[in-house]
Design goal:
single chain, alpha/beta, 4-stranded antiparallel sheet, binds adenosine monophosphate, binds zinc ion
Length: about 475
């Protein structure tokens, strides 16, 4: 399996640090509003990377933070007259709802910056002790000149950057030793959340958060570090400087970055105001369509959002859903018998598309080609299944299709109104009502289920149910 590594600017063979395991850190959103569909791109892309690694048998420890202390959060809190914590808690909860609707799996750990301040103070102190950081008037800066490889991720010309930054130096920043030095700790300003530290009350800079949370939950060295391409510089460059200076070893082996989601060929961003929130899109489309739209492009290619592309994503996804639905219907009426020889041969032949899918994904997660392989499988299944097939064959065909879609996080089964678990819960409630001689409630539940197409039968073995 090959992964494009921003560090080397090449596709490299993926070799995990520890056999069978992957440690992965993805920079999460700053939570001061609903997330927009640009923020959703890394969520969907790296969730898919994780799913594919899991499919390949890796045990993936996936950590993604929420930045819950930041100027923008404080500004929003002041506008609303509430605490910063109230704002961040509200939008973390909303973000988790969006993630669920997009079928993005929860991370193994979702650390919050505000819960990790002691670890940040500790790392900053260690950097000072090692000569990589210095304090001036309550602000602690990282000494970039001391870290030789500074710039290795972004491949930037540091001298150009230095002279550019020098002319941009804003007042108060002239206390820095070097224009590229960045903040690790900043002193408290009136009305802002603050924590005690050896350098006075204040709060951490943004970059130190990820170095600390990654180390705490994954260890000093990790396999994959990921985020949107705007994070390469300065955020990830600075993370590398902090972590490698402090820990004395390479921070992450593979650095993955997704390209932007654009609108009218401009980056979709909150500051430009040209964005749609995930929530807005969910009112018009099933978010599976958004997921399909994102994965239908390679993650390193810019992607332009448009209603036409969403519409065509919807029809494409429908083709897969319809194929799965047809297989299900055929299964319901199929013969209960083992697979015939020709069915075995057809099933084996369909493996070709699984191989194509894997080849695409092994090539730096080429989800666009992986989706093409799914369509080839759909076409094959449409022409090689009918009402004469055995249930076993049809079931295996459906499972093959579902497995591939599940790697991309695409749910292709039409949602039933009531899940089996809901039905079971109502039946249990009805049994309890009968025990308590509350027959009115018991009848009510039977009627409610019947209305939803669930038929109950009271048998000697207990209550049985089926869909009408
Ligand atoms: P932020 O909340 O701005 O820190 O962004 C959270 C994540 O979303 C980061 O990985 C960003 O790189 C990513 N991101 C923000 N805007 C876009 C966009 N328009 N397209 C793709 N990724 C984006
Ligand atoms: Zn980060």
């Amino acid at each position: 399996m090959k992964i494009y590594n921003t560090l080397s600017k090449k596709k490299e063979e993926f070799v995990p640090l520890e056999e069978g395991k992957v440690k992965m850190y993805v920079c999460g959103p700053t939570v001061y509003n609903f997330i927009h569909i640009g923020n959703a791109r890394p969520m969907i892309v790296f969730d898919t990377v994780r799913r594919y690694l899991e499919y390949k048998g890796y045990d993936v420890n996936y950590v993604s933070n929420f930045t819950d202390v930041d100027d923008k959060i404080i500004k929003k809190a002041n506008e609303e007259g509430v605490t910063a914590q109230e704002i961040s808690e509200r939008y973390i909860a909303e973000c988790k709802k969006d993630m669920e609707m997009m079928n993005v799996k929860p991370a193994t750990t979702h650390p919050l910056a505000t819960q990790e301040i002691p670890g940040m103070i500790e790392m900053i102190q260690e950097l000072i002790d090692k000569g990589y950081a210095y304090e001036v008037n309550g602000t602690v800066y990282f000494r970039t000149r001391k870290f030789g490889p500074y710039g290795k991720l972004s491949h930037k010309n540091l001298d150009d950057l230095r002279s550019g930054n020098r002319s941009l130096l804003v007042s108060g920043e002239d206390e820095k030793e070097d224009p590229l030095d960045f903040v690790l700790w900043k002193p408290k300003k009136e009305g802002e959340p603050a924590w005690q530290s050896p350098w006075g009350e204040g709060r951490p800079g943004w970059h130190i958060e990820c170095s600390v949370m990654s180390k705490k939950y994954l260890g000093a060295q990790i396999d994959i570090h990921a985020g949107g391409e705007d994070l390469v510089f300065p955020h990830h460059e600075n993370e590398i400087a902090q972590s490698e200076a402090c820990n004395g070893r390479e921070f992450a082996k593979y650095w993955m970055h997704n390209a932007f989601l654009n609108i009218d060929n401009k980056k979709m961003s909150k500051s430009l105001g040209n964005f749609f929130t995930v929530r807005e899109i969910s009112e018009k489309y099933d978010l599976q369509v958004l997921r399909f739209f994102m994965l239908n492009a390679h993650y390193r290619s810019p992607l332009n959002f448009s209603a036409e592309l969403m519409q065509s994503s919807k029809s494409s996804l429908d083709r897969i859903v319809t194929a799965a639905d047809n297989l299900k219907h055929l299964m319901e009426n199929a013969k209960d018998q083992g697979m015939t020889e020709s069915e075995v041969a057809h099933y084996d032949a369909s493996e070709e598309y699984v191989k194509k899918f894997e080849e695409a994904m092994d090539d730096d997660f080429n989800t666009a080609d992986a989706i093409s392989a799914i369509f080839e499988l759909v076409k094959y299944l449409n022409t090689h299944t009918d009402a004469d097939n055995s249930r076993e064959y049809l079931k295996k065909c459906l499972e093959r299709l579902k497995t591939l879609c599940d790697i991309l996080g695409l749910v292709i089964e039409k949602k039933e109104d009531l899940l089996d678990a809901d039905v079971e819960a109502l039946i249990a409630e009805r049994q309890q009502a009968r025990k308590e001689k509350n027959f009115a409630r018991a009848d009510e539940i039977r009627a409610e289920l019947l209305e939803k197409g669930i038929i109950l039968e009271d048998t000697r073995e207990g209550v049985k149910w089926r869909r009408a």
